[in-house]
Amino acid sequence: MEFSGRKILVLGAGISGIAVAGILKQLGAEVTLSDTKCQDEIKKDLAQLTAKGVVLALGKQDESLLDHVDYVVLSPGISIYNSLVEQAKGQGVTVMSEIEVAYQLCQAPMVAVTGTNGKTTTTTLLGEIVKAAGRETVVGGNIGRALSEEVLPVSKEGVAVAEISSFQLEGAIDFRPHVAAILNLTPDHIDRHRTMANYQLMKEKIFANQTAGDYLILNYDDAAVRHMAERASSQVVFFSRCVELPSGIYVKDGVITIRWNGDTTKILPVEDVTIKGAHNVENALAACGCAFFLGVGSDIMAQVLRNFSGVEHRIEPVTQINGVWYYNDSKATNPESSIKALEAFDGHIILIAGGRDKNTDLSEFMKLAQERVDHLILIGEARARFFDAARQAGLASVEQAEDLVSAVGLAHSLAKPPQVVLLSPACASYDMFANYEERGKVFKDLVHRLS
After folding, report:
1. What is the total count of domains within the chain?
2. Whole-structure pTM value
3. From the CB of residue 396, how many other CB atoms can be counted at a distance below 10 Å?
4. Would you state the pLDDT for residue 207?
5. What's the average model confidence in pLDDT over 217-239?
6. Strand boundaries in 59-204, DSSP class E
7. 241 vs 253, 279, 433, CA distance in Å?
8. Who contacts 268 (Cβ-Cβ below 8 Å, separation ≥6)?
9. Rg (Cα) of the chain, in Å, rounded?
10. Residue 253 CB neighbours (<10 A)
11. SS3 call for 373
């Protein structure tokens, strides 16, 4: 796909939009960056873009932005149902996501990881494994810097490891990772994708263009993911935490094992994996599967799994105060992710939850909370619905707090060993914070002040 000399409209002045606008201008395109926010509402410095010649169209958006445009490039925050995007499609303008631009520019083979939960941990872990193998490696996508920015320097001998969200896959066209992994599928982002069927369809776009020379790593234990194999043209490789597979990545006698083309390779005992919890065993299996098809040796996988301590905001130990550990799980933006966090502890949890409500089903989350949570403290827009669901599930101690400051103070006053205090919101952060990262950092700062 040629970008030089093209007139391109980039929608969304977030991290990805700003990065890809600059890159496209650098490649010789005529670029306009547009956002519905005005300049003073955007907390980013756009001076470097304007210095390069990128035109800013901020605030009001109308159809005139599409005049003579060749491509529209979407930041992840811009839906394909956006009215301007629909107008562009109606005019026959090619609409693509920022990751499509990244794919077109990337010389190296790409490994892409998606799923409702576990993407960040699996992607980060895989990146560390590939780096340890001595390969030139970049990690990007729905994690850290924009993927289009990360892939530019990497040579064809390197590897691009990408966390890919359903938002980013909406605008995928030719996107084709050499190795793709789908970790799980549970209801999420229905407010954006409208139906669960659409959400799954977006996830499946990660392998839609793969061919017989590519690999698709699928979670055998998740029925919806397992059946995706029926629609794949690539080589399907299952991983399972629960079943010994005739071929694939699995746990046997407590040891992570890979069996492929009749050969069996043992990686390491599950008990030696530093990141704890059943969900992290699944993440480790997926990462090992991807690494295996990149030619990484089992000894390197084992070494990294022994040393990898996890990622920020995902069941992250903060500190211990008066014998009570505090954990930051701000990345848990849906009930399924918070369920995995609750399962990582034996009980005696003081749980802080709530935020921007996605209106997802709370029954399983509250059932497990009733078993493992001593005190539930609720914050944010979702707190009233969560409170009703908690009472219905039979939780004995449920409190509502005005904000995170009050919630942390209340948790501290209640906490006694062997309890743990866990922030795992099961909600988005946008009612009180810019993103889950800000929420997690505020939580950690409040906890450190207590100590």
Report:
1. 3
2. 0.82
3. 11
4. 98
5. 98
6. 71-74, 94-97, 110-114, 137-141, 159-163, 179-182
7. 11, 9, 35
8. 255, 256, 301, 302, 305, 306
9. 22
10. 9
11. strand
Q: What's the CA gap between 414 and 420, in Å, rounded?
A: 10
Domain shared by 105 and 70, yes or no: no
Q: Is residue 145 part of a domain?
A: yes
- Residues 33 and 171 placed together within one structural domain of the fold: no
Angle at 49 between CA 168 and CA 156, to 5 degrees: 55
Q: Which residue has the tokens 């952060």?
A: 429
Tell me: do 26 and 84 sit in the same domain.
yes
What's residue 189's pLDDT? 78
Domain region containing 243: 100-307
Q: What is the spatial distance between Cα 358 and Cα 340, in angstroms, rounded to a whole number?
A: 18
Q: Convert the pLDDT of each residue in 96-128 to its tens digit.
A: 999 999 999 999 999 999 999 899 999 999 999
Q: pLDDT tens, 399-450?
A: 999 999 999 999 999 999 999 999 999 999 999 999 999 999 999 999 999 9
d(CA 287, CA 417): 35
Q: What is the rounded CA–CA span in Å between residue 366 and residue 368?
A: 5
| Assigned domain for 129 exists | yes
Widest CA span of the chain, in angstroms? 66
Residues 344, 418 share a domain? yes
Residue ranges of E strands in 51-116: 55-58, 71-74, 94-97, 110-114
Pair 142, 281 in one domain? yes
| Boundary-marking domain end, from 28, 60, 92 | 92
The closest of 209, 207, 208, 188 to 198, measured between CA atoms, is 188
The alpha carbon of 70 is separated from its chain's Cα centroid by a whole number of angstroms, namely: 30
